[in-house]
Amino acid sequence: MAKKIFIGFVALVLVAFVLLFQFGGRAAEELTKKLLAEQTALQGTLKAEEIQANWSGDVIFKNVVWVGPDGKTIAEIPLATVSVNLFDALLKGGTGASVGDVVIDKPSFFVSYNKKDGLNIVNYINFQVEEEQKNNELLTVKKAAAATQFRGLMEIKDAKVNLLLENKPLDFDKVQFQGNFKQYPKIKYGLRVKDGKSDIIADIQNDSGTTAVVAEVKKMPLQNILNVLPQAADVVITEGNLPDVKIRADKADDKWTLNIDGTIDGLKGSLINYPVTKGSGKFSADTEALKFAGLNLELAGQTVVIDGNVYYAEKPEAKQTYALTVNAPSFVIEALSPGLGLKDAVTALGKVKGTIDKPEAEGTFGLDKLAYDPLYITALSGKFLYKDGKLNIGDAIGNVYAGQVNVNGQIDTKTKDFKLEVQGIDLDSSVVTETQVDGPLSFKMLAIGTADAGSATGAGSFRIEEGKYMMLPFRSIKGSITRQQGKFAFSNIKIATAVGSFDTNIIVKDNGKLGFDLDKGFLAAQLGEK
Q: Least packed by Cβ within 10 Å: which of 314, 320, 356, 530?
């Protein structure tokens, strides 16, 4: 973001060179026209609809248009006033030193930038450079015939800058600019951009190949810069503010250093298809990465904290990469999909990686207890992986009734549909049945549902291995299970014994425990009755 804002600053600063070479030293109208026609400092053409000169030394230019060599308009200047030292101009024939102050009213600039060609307005200016100076990464520099001798002040009032940044528009309105050339080669620039309640104030100083930029941004809406930021998959920002941002950029030996510190608040939008209703935190940036520290989001009504870096792309066509940590200290499970109907909360910790167009997140989660009547699961922990809009749950293991429960599955973050496989292994059936049945219980069930509350349904089977019913032995009890509206139901139950197989029923008691209603034939057979 800082690079984009700084490019806008550079575009405004370059106006100084435009006027410097064009209007630098003809007190007479005809000489000024000749200078415009024969100038070589700017590529393309520069024409003024009207030029007025008077003996006070002021030259007024009306409706000046600069057209680049590609035929596109670079600048439109309705009115420019240049003060000229007439005596110096007449004696010396008019040079940049003859120009005093320059004031430009309500100009419009149309500039573009891309990584390959840099800033077009810079490429169209023939700068004066020393022989040993090397081109930097932003400028295509051509040696001019003579260096500027302008030693005055330049002021631009209420300018509009239309910047096309990598084919994305970034517009600045009511831009105020001041440039001081009196201590050349030390040049000082001041810039202020005010748009509604937001404010950008910058001081720029250039001296013998070094540049220092100090800027402050106040109350800027994020919408002002969103359209020039890289498109990030699964991230949508609809609102947000930058209350206070401080920028420091320095150039020495053709290298830039950058430091940005700021805050963000009022953030709204969505993240991985879940609504973000509130967000705030701190961020910083340098020439390598954008960094977040304690970015607090209210995601689907739950608190999520993000820290870490987003690294800039180093090569052309490359993508920015994530290196973030995500912490959810108490995330209610049903916030992922209301159909889950699970009001217990997990603690989750993960890492976001991949590129901004293909993000991935993986990590672990855990919780102390989970009520899944009639099961009460404790110490449940597992892993998660987010990729391509799907949240995958795997290797989730918990304790239940002296046994173990495993959970695996997937939640579609777009539709909120889910599919989970729940498996219980070696549960103590005597706890489930209040000692009516004793034996290791296992079950397997597939639970599915949608975003609608109460939509979860499940189906599967269970089996109790060799055990006892009311102290009477059996080889196994097995049957089918279903789950609807948060309740289990059982059917097709068979109990196998040494003397045969018998039907039975299971009912869920008010306290959530299971009760067996065994066939009388089973009891008779076990007791040896005829």
A: 530
